[in-house]
Amino acid sequence: MKVIGIDIGTTTISGVVLDAEADAVLDARAVENGSFIETGRSWERLQDVPAIIRKAAKLLDDLLAQYPDTAAIGLTGQMHGILYTDREGRCVSPLYTWQDGRGGLAEAGRENLAKEVQHTTGMEIAAGYGLLTHLYNQRHGEVPEEAVGLCTIADYFGMVLTGRKWALMHVSNAAGLGLFDCERLCFDGRALQQLAIDEKLLPEVTADFLVAGQYKGLPVCTALGDNQAGFLGSVGFQKNVLLVNMGTGGQISMMTDRYVRLPGIETRPFDGERYLMVGASLCGGRAYAILEAFFRAYAAAFSGQEAPPQYEVMERLARSTAENSLKISTLFQGTRTEPALRGSITNICEDNFTPAQMIRGVMTGMAQELYTMYRKIADGTGSRAELLIASGNGLRKNALLREIFSEMFRAKLCLARFEEEAACGAALAAVLSVSGNGGYKTP
User: Model-level pTM?
Assistant: First the structure.
């Protein structure tokens, strides 16, 4: 069985053709997303929905043209952002991405919206989560008049492909919007009522791997959240395996078969029976990219011309010393719950204030932030990671960073078998949908 998986990410849109029986990727392609919209608001992160859909549709059609014996299509994408739709199922807004900061803004005479929601409902929600974004829009008159529904970008792509007027949303995406009861697997009606959010805007939710409709005669699976899709594509349903992803952000995920609440850790639905314990850092791999830009700017100033990427030089410098006494916190963008926090460099002395120590310090800081979260998961569940599986270019392209993670977590680390983990996970979800483990739900 050949299946196609499409992943609509913040930076790139990826597609894979997976041979499910051979467990092999036959083709993998990626195109730049490149759809950010300049708005003049420093905290706003919006993307052009029609531009995204055009690129995703072309990528899918190109793959279908080359692999006409495809049996099903799976979808995934950035899971916290939202867009609004009208009665005909057409998008009537930009995509408010997971990086959008309106939910963390201080309201006039009040604390920021995320903290207000927590005090009002008792539920934690972070800036960038769809229903917090919607609440801000609702209070500031920024919800389009014709809007009757909201969904993620991957759900909307599914609507476009299948002709649906209303989204059918998998719990992995629904939980990513916030104000979701992860134990009962439904939106929290009480919290929505307390915040005066109209439940009619919210999509139908399912915990099953279902087929939502057809595109060119092929079944299209309900979209998965990119975290769960990445886990499925890298780990499957294995226990005691920690997935470490280092991309634009950073993330650790470990599966459990019971619902557990831990402070600072998200318990995200995987399906109707399993959950992922997730710790997320906002900066993640971008911390290393920021440092590379710092060194590249100096190299350009020194040479008087544009400098090439500095990553190879940085790794060589970092390997020139085993010492790591420079302490660097990489909270350049704060945390999901404390967006105002910032990073720091401490324990500076004459001997350790060197480029090599700074590079090692940043890498160690990136690992330390996620390790602290892992300790909460391990202590709270009694489960220990026997294996680390690394995904994302931040780890794939940095051997020293992988060594630092393996040493800190005291576990063997190996790279995920497929590079486009989330797209592969979407493809595998499509296999589950059409193989009898899911079901078919007509538009």
Answer: 0.86
